[in-house]
Specification:
With 247 residues, the chain is mainly α. The chain has 11 helices and 5 strands, in the order αααββαααβααββααα. Strands 3-5-4 form a 3-stranded antiparallel β-sheet. A two-stranded antiparallel sheet has the order 1-2. It is 66% helix and 6% strand. It has 3 domains: 104 residues, Orthogonal Bundle (Multidrug-efflux Transporter Regulator, Chain: A, Domain 2); 58 residues, no CATH class; 82 residues, no CATH class.
């Protein structure tokens, strides 16, 4: 029997060639090699026949670089940002960093053709995939053959396409997250209201600019830990139920 740690290690093992990594990330092989020479990507694991293999951490790092570029950061600024991160960050940790960075930007809705959507997704999307993204409110048919796309949510939506959950469960999960995140946001806004009322307008803008990414990161970290505990409790309860003798 394998442990959770062994399962996680197996799932994150580098298995992608550079061509496969480029296709999944929606970039060119040349871009990957360029990032590697600049130290933005860790080197691949060299396998048989001297073939380099990449893993989920490379994908997550490429997604973070893409998000930083969307924020208007130059390559030099991105290099400085990545240099400040711990070298042993997992793919999950990098995804949290990307979520925090994405929170800095205003909502971005773009009009895309199907080919544009495929390029942004980093893979060919079938009609069923697009229907699932539409059910998640990530894409909306515009009526002229194009799609209105929530650019900030697209990568997450594409990742959810590979999760073995029914569409109903995914949509229900989204509704739960939206409902509770709005409630948390309202409570936090009330907590900060008195503090903001005592400040001048420039100070309020400065406080908002600093607090936004910090609150997002705190919420993500707290939710990550709470979800891990809840899933462990549910799994333990399911195991106990199976072990109980039949009446």
């Amino acid at each position: 029997m394998t442990t959770d740690t062994e399962d996680a290690a197996a799932a994150s093992a580098p298995t992608l060639t550079v061509d496969e990594l480029a296709a999944r990330a929606g970039v060119t092989v040349r871009t990957i090699r360029f990032y590697s020479t600049r130290g933005l990507l860790p080197p691949p694991v060299i396998g048989p026949r001297r073939v380099g293999h990449y893993g989920q951490d490379h994908l997550s790092r490429l997604a973070l670089i893409e998000e930083l570029q969307h924020q208007g950061m130059t390559l030099a600024a991105i290099e400085r940002y990545l240099e400040q991160l711990p070298a042993d960050l997992s793919a999950h940790d990098l995804a949290i960093h990307r979520a925090v960075v994405a929170s800095w930007a205003p909502d971005t809705v773009e009009t895309l053709t199907r080919d544009d959507l495929d390029r942004r997704a980093g893979r060919r999307l079938g009609d069923e995939d697009v229907a699932r993204l539409a059910a998640m409110d990530i894409v909306t048919p515009a009526g002229d053959g194009t799609l209105r796309c929530d650019a900030g949510m697209l990568r997450l939506g594409v990742q959810l396409l590979d999760v073995p959950l029914s569409l109903e469960s995914v949509v229900a999960s989204r509704e739960v997250l939206v409902e509770h995140s709005r409630a948390a946001a309202r409570e936090l806004a009330r907590l900060f209201r008195d503090e903001v009322a005592q400040r001048a307008a420039p100070d309020v803008r400065s406080l908002s600019a600093h607090m936004h990414p910090l609150v997002v990161q705190a919420l993500l970290t707290a939710f990550q830990r709470s979800l891990k505990e809840a899933l462990r409790d549910e799994l333990d309860e399911a195991t106990r139920t199976q072990d109980r003798p039949a009446p």
